[in-house]
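note to self — DONT lose this again. spent like an hour looking for the file last time. sequence + predicted structure for the chain T wanted, 254 res
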Amino acid sequence: MARTPFKLRSGNTTPFKLMGSSPARQEVEDEVVTEKGDTTVNISDEGEISKARKDLVTTTKTKKGQPVEEIVKPGTPGYDKWLAAVKKDPSIEEKYKPKTVTETKEVPVEETIKPVVRGKKSRYEIAPVSTRGATHHTLNIEGEKVRVKNKDMAKWYETHGYTKHPKTGTYIRQSTTGEGKVYDPNMWESTHGSKMSVKPDFDYSGVDYGNVGDATWKNADERQKYTDYQKELKEAQRQIKYNAANAPVDDENE
């Protein structure tokens, strides 16, 4: 006997499992159409780019349906039961008919682009050693002369954050005053394998090193990220100007 979309039973049992069984598997197709909304762009003082818009997403689900004649042949007992059931409850046939359901919803889309800042060169200062004697070093600290025993100098350099320059042998650290010799932090690290030493517990955020120029790139990936960010920044600035020029104007006379 041909396969049926229901289970035949003997006696007075209603076919289709009391009309509650699911129809045979039917192919479902989804079509998604997205209508992009207007984009709002903001740039923070730190250079962070924020983009936001609301898209209208329309999803259309189409169930192709399946004629019962493809499942059970006309003229068979199964088909006769089908006809009897449909006559009693026409809604059963709806399960096998093509059906299209369309849903439209608003979808928020947000994007945040962190700034990529190219580093600057810096300056380093030399330990304030004025003289080196047979037993003592004389230091000039803020205009005052301080004598430190030679055997204690290594500890003094370490305590104040000075390390030996790989080439000159003088003890140096990142400048705490903004003055000193210019150096490139990235070049220094790649050449010497370590960062420039700093004064412990000192806040360098307020130190102005003047117009020392940009540091070199650490690698090609860092350079590409900076280039990509600059493109995004220019586009964001253009978008902000466009939005301002095309903003609706309230007419008080209307």
